[in-house]
Design a protein that fits this description.
Elements (H helix, E strand, L loop, with lengths): L1 H36 L4 E6 L2 E6 L4 E6 L3 E2 L8 E7 L4 E8 L10 E5 L2 E8 L2 E3 L3 H13 L2 E7 L5 E7 L3 H11 L5
Antiparallel strand pairs: 1-2, 2-3, 3-5, 4-11, 5-6, 6-9, 7-8, 7-10, 8-9, 10-11
Length: 183
């Protein structure tokens, strides 16, 4: 009787293993066509530490950079970007993803040269509160050597991500031109 139960248990385990093996071997056959449909963003140019890209699937264009320095070990990959979504008539929208999750109710400060902005957002996300602030941020980016985003992390530590702005103006212009005809 014991031998019969052990054999039955082994058959069940073998069936599960066979199913998983077939499933994972067949998965690439189904996933590859889906991946082929997604188009990779087109590089419009790399300008010092900033890159400009066009994503034809959305369509959108954006200038993007990683921070030159951050305090502590990042929990997510931080970046700052300026985006254009021509079909939605959104132009020059500033966005930042922080290196760590921000504490609830904590202020998110953006400093560019002598200009200071209080961003809105949640978690690791931050953006300008309105299009006027977007325009002011982009104007400040064009004339300053660096910018920093600061807040307090959910864990209580500091968040400080610093970006070099050399090449930012050119990347922003390339992104704007890259989407100028897409409407």
């Amino acid at each position: 009787m014991l031998a019969k139960r052990a054999l039955s248990r082994n058959r069940g385990a073998m069936r599960r293993a066979a199913f998983l093996l077939v499933f994972f071997l067949a998965l690439p056959a189904f996933a590859l066509p889906a991946l082929a449909l997604a188009t990779a963003p087109t590089a419009l140019g790399i300008f010092d530490g900033w890159g400009a890209f066009r994503d034809p699937d959305t369509p959108r264009c954006y200038a993007i950079a990683s921070p030159a320095a951050t305090i502590g070990k990042p929990r997510v990959k931080p970046y700052a970007s300026v985006g254009y979504w021509p079909k939605s008539r959104i132009r020059g929208q500033f966005y930042v993803r922080l290196s760590k999750e921000r504490g609830a109710g904590r202020e998110l400060r953006l400093t560019i040269g002598s200009r200071r902005f209080i961003l809105t957002g949640n978690g690791v996300h931050g953006w300008a509160s309105d299009p006027r602030m977007d325009a002011a941020i982009i104007a400040a980016i064009r004339s300053a050597p660096s910018m920093s985003v600061e807040s307090t992390a959910a864990s209580g530590g500091a968040i400080a991500d610093t970006y070099r702005l050399r090449g930012a103006a050119t990347a922003i212009d390339a992104a704007a031109l890259g989407c100028a005809r897409l409407r």
